[in-house]
Amino acid sequence: MDKNTIDAVLKKIQDTETAAGNPRTKAIVNRIVQDLFYTIEDLDVQPEEFWAAVNYLTEAGRSGEYGLIAAGLGFEHFLDLRMDEAEARAGIVGGTPRTIEGPLYVAGAPETLGEARLDSDGEPGELLFMQGQVLADDGKPLAGALVEVWHANHQGHYSYFDKSQQEFNLRRSIRTDAHGRYRFRSVLPIGYSVPPNGATDRLLKQMGRHGTRPAHIHFFVSAPGHRKLTTQINIDGDPYLWNDFAFATREGLVPKLVRVTDPAGLDAHQVDAPFASIDFNFTLHAEQATLPDTEIIRPRASA
Ligand SMILES: [Fe+2]
């Protein structure tokens, strides 16, 4: 079809709109419909392909995997890059890089001051201590900042979504001490893949892609008067470190992992086995009223 004919159809559809409704929704939906009409035309999409896609979207919705699909198709990373760009235009550069939240945060994790233990007794995996400070962008420590941390277990599963784990296993909220310090004990997470044969897996296979993430730990870091940071650190050495299906690995988010084996180190941490140790500071930027908010409102699980 020629462009004039397609545009005439689009206009006919849009002309059915009244003054009622939501202008923002109208603008976005009309643009998406226009782009898809042209996709169908340009790629000569056949009716069977179109209805297969509609059916796929229905199944993907039922499976609850749209959060994974959004990450896998790069949308979540793209939103991060757009936020980086908005901040850069306002003169905000440096600090701890943001990266994707993913769909597996659960609100309401127990909060403690200064330090926390994330793992349950007998949690399989290599013991980990991670510690550091939350800093303002002038380098001053931020006392009373909130470090929300969550990560997968030794099988790559998250508590709440994996009902075999205790409530809030490997999830805590840590309030920084007077020196802006946080510290936690846990076990090293491993990487994980999207559910086998699920909606995300089937889509990625059609794209000739894998659905694996390297081992990582998620964080929200917030303090009054500062821009909330959503980020992750990666566990160095993971074979998928720079091959994340969700595009979340970024320079500056791969801290050095040290293995502590000396008796004095073990004594200091009151443990009797060697452990992994990660030092990492989070630097937050001062809030600027003109910038898009980094406190992103979206539906999240809540235990
Ligand atoms: Fe994750």
Outline:
With 303 residues, the protein is an alpha/beta fold.
Structure in words:
By secondary structure, this protein is α/β, with parallel strands linked by helices. Strands 3, 4, 7, 12, 13 and 14 form a six-stranded mixed beta sheet that branches. The protein has a five-stranded mixed beta sheet with strand order 2-6-5-10-11, with no helix packed on it. A two-stranded parallel sheet has the order 1-15. The N and C termini lie far apart (52 Å). The model has no long low-confidence stretch (mean pLDDT 97). The chain has two domains: 66 residues, no CATH class; 208 residues, Sandwich (Protocatechuate 3,4-Dioxygenase, subunit A), CATH 2.60.130.10. The chain is 28% helix and 22% strand. The site of fe (ii) ion (FE2) has 5 residues, from β10. Fe (ii) ion (FE2) binds next to β10.
CATH homologous superfamily title of the largest domain: Aromatic compound dioxygenase
**Which stretches are low in confidence, meaning pLDDT under 50 for 5 or more residues running?**
none
Category by helix and strand content:
alpha/beta
Mean pLDDT across residues: 97
What integer value in Å does the Rg equal?
23 Å
Coarse shape: globular
- Assess the beta-strand content as a share of residues: 15-25%
Largest beta-sheet details: 6 strands, mixed
CATH architecture of the largest domain: Sandwich
CATH topology of the largest domain: Protocatechuate 3,4-Dioxygenase, subunit A
The tally of structural domains comes to: 2
The rounded distance between the terminal residues' Cα atoms is: 52 Å
List the ligand species. fe (ii) ion
